[in-house]
Structures are given as C-alpha cells and as structure tokens.
Amino acid sequence: MEYTDKVCEYFRNPKNMGRIENPDGVGTVGNKVCGDVMKIYIKVNDDIIEDIKFETFGCGAAIATSSVVTELAKGKKIEEALKISNKEVVDFLGGLPPIKKHCSLLAEDGLKAAINDYRDKQKNSAPSPIKSEDKQL
Known about the structure:
The protein has 137 residues and is of the alpha+beta class. It has helices at residues 5-12, 60-73, 78-82, 86-92, 101-125, and strands spanning 25-30, 37-45, 48-57.
C-alpha cells in the first residue's frame, strides 16, 4: 500500500492533535472492522470554530485525515464546516489507497458529530420560555 507524501507528512507531523479542556462539542466515531477511533473536540465562538483538536487511535491514514479535517474546519463558520466532505479531505491529501478511504469518512463523521454535540448543548442550555403564570403582575 502506498501513501502520498502529504499523507506521510500529516501522519508524522499531525496538526491540532490533543484535547480541548471544556470543549463546546465532542464527536467520537469509530470503525469496528479496522479498529480506528477518532475523537474531535471543538471550541466555538460567535458561530465560528475557533479551536479544534483530535485524538485518534488508528493507522497512519486515520491520523492524517483527522489532522486534515481539523485544519479545514478551523476558523470556519459552523455551516461551512458542515460542508467539508471526505472527498475534500482525500483531495487535500493527494489521494488515499481505496482500502483506506473509510478513514476520510470517519474524519468527516467525527467533525459532524462534534458540531451536532455542540448544537445539542446549545439547545439544552437555552433559557426556558417564561409562562404566563411565572410573570409577576
């Protein structure tokens, strides 16, 4: 199996690796067949992903795709980040062997899971509407 120079570079020197303390969203995804597990953390400010990090346990392609998806998403508005596709990740890396393309899907799914977690937390932290019986007259 042959990897592009870019895949090897991102595997050897991943960007945004680590954990964010008190993240606004966390996405955890995995592939039971190969055993890869990705965890993506995001910090959001004004609807913009201002920080993003990952922890990945898996092969070189899994680490490289995790790193790339964080680079593509950092600084983007939530809606823009949701449009990042596995094809975009693969293209950025100059390709992946067919047997490793599932890693790019995990990276896309991990980002979307982190964003969905962030959105769920936003919904749950919204103040409850005031009922008429709660108002003081």
